[in-house]
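Anyone up for a design puzzle?
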């Protein structure tokens, strides 16, 4: 019998009350990738708090029937508002050689025109696309705090609460990472132009964090609040120490070494490469997620792997921005943990994100099937399982594996789809990642919330219509 429990969340900013339906449920799958390997003809039982309560042999008779069931991935890095500029920065800027910094100019132009309701509509679209792509949760690296020219909203958490609102409407598992952004470079130059919307001094940041931490109590239990100093460029060592001590139990994310120019700037100012400086000055451990640890020397690779921290990789965005290639082969061989993020959201595509990670290694090393091991020759399964557990760790989320006691973050693939019909076990993952797109995704549960059904989000049309209206207005104003 289905026990339905209606939970009502009053979001702190508003007037709007969102209802999410949580219910105990059971899912029958012909093939399930559990934490102890593949199992066939199994029922996954989910309790009304969204956790897996039992895994049992079954023949059918459950609430839902699916073909292939996998632990769903967590998307560990997103700046959702950047989805609105996808495709608009693909022409060369005024420099003879176009680079990251001309892309950033387009991003700052966008910041001139974004209003709170735009931020919410764009975030809902992004989260919906993530869910339809097979992710069950997302971490938002949220640095857009203020209005134009840095004017403060009456409510310091206005834009953070827009992100919560979007998350409640999509039902995604959500980790909010309010960003501390203090200055425009290591020389502590003042923020200017679009950056004024990001700025907080440490006192303002502590006020924001404390308000958000109160507000979290009224949100779903799987929502998490973390801490995110933007980068070594934008935050002083003293402030980084304070941020690190705000709450020692929650995730701590930082952009670290995305661009060679950034590495040079840190070396000039701090006499060390960015990852080396961070490892030498902080107890970097499993709470930490280093976003774009792209540029590391060999000892940085080995020491970051030993630390237990997660390397936050965003292969599609990093390729789009010409960042460089992360040395995943050495890092994983040394026991390093990683997860995936869609960062700029120029394209949200889970299987392509995984494929890009592997093929970048193949192109650099002129070989095939790089990320695998003697125990796990399947390239797809090797990277998928690691991305699942590393991503969940980075979000502070008890997920990333199918076992009793974990959150029911689950993705089902359509085993009747012509691309994988008749295939089983690891080769399904290899085929999805290297030969297909996310059209194979049929259902997604986020902490037991059934948010994608038969390939579409349960509020697909409503969210997309809102996004379309928002984009038509923004594109006119650009
Ligand atoms: Zn980022």
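Challenge accepted. My sequence:
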């Amino acid at each position: 019998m289905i026990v339905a429990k209606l939970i009502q969340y009053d979001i702190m900013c508003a007037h709007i009350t969102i209802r999410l339906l949580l219910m105990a449920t059971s899912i029958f799958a012909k093939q399930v990738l559990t934490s102890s390997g593949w199992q066939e003809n199994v029922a996954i039982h989910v309790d009304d708090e969204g956790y897996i309560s039992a895994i049992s042999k079954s023949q059918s008779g459950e609430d839902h029937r699916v073909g292939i069931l996998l632990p769903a991935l967590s998307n560990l890095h997103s700046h959702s508002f950047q989805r609105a500029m996808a495709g608009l920065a693909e022409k060369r800027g005024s420099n003879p050689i176009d680079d990251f910094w001309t892309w950033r100019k387009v991003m700052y132009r966008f910041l001139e025109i974004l209003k709170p309701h735009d931020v919410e509509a764009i975030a809902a679209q992004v989260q919906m696309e993530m869910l339809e792509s097979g992710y069950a949760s997302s971490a938002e690296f949220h640095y857009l705090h203020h209005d134009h020219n840095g004017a403060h909203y009456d409510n310091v958490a206005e834009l953070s609460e827009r992100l919560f609102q979007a998350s409640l409407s999509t039902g995604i598992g959500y980790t909010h990472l309010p960003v501390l952004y203090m200055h425009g470079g290591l020389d502590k130059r003042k923020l200017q132009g679009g950056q004024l919307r990001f700025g907080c001094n440490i006192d303002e940041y502590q006020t924001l964090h404390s308000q958000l931490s109160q507000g979290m109590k009224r949100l779903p239990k799987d929502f998490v609040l973390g801490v995110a100093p933007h980068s070594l460029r934008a935050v002083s060592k003293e402030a980084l120490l304070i941020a690190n001590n705000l709450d020692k139990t929650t995730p701590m994310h930082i952009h670290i070494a995305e661009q060679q120019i950034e590495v040079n700037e840190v070396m000039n100012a701090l006499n060390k490469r960015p990852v080396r400086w961070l490892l030498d000055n902080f107890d970097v451990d499993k709470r930490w997620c280093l976003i774009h640890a792209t540029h590391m020397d060999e000892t940085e690779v080995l020491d970051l792997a030993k630390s237990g921290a997660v390397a936050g990789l965003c292969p599609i965005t990093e390729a789009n921005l010409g960042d460089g290639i992360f040395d995943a082969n050495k890092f994983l061989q040394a026991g390093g943990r990683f997860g995936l993020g869609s960062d700029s959201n120029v394209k949200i595509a889970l299987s392509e994100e995984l494929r890009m990670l592997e093929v970048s290694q193949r192109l650099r090393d002129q070989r095939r099937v790089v990320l695998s091991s003697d125990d796990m020759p399947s390239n797809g399964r090797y990277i998928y399982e690691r991305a699942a557990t590393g991503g969940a760790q980075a979000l502070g989320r008890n997920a990333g594996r199918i076992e009793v006691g974990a959150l029911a973050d689950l993705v089902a693939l359509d085993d009747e789809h012509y691309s994988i019909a008749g295939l089983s076990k690891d080769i399904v993952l290899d085929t999805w990642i290297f030969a297909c797109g996310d059209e194979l995704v049929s259902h997604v549960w986020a902490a037991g919330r059934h948010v994608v059904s038969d390939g579409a989000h349960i509020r697909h049309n409503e969210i997309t219509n809102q996004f379309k209206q928002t984009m038509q207005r923004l594109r006119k104003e650009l």
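A detail worth pointing out: Residues 116-133 form the longest helix (18 residues).
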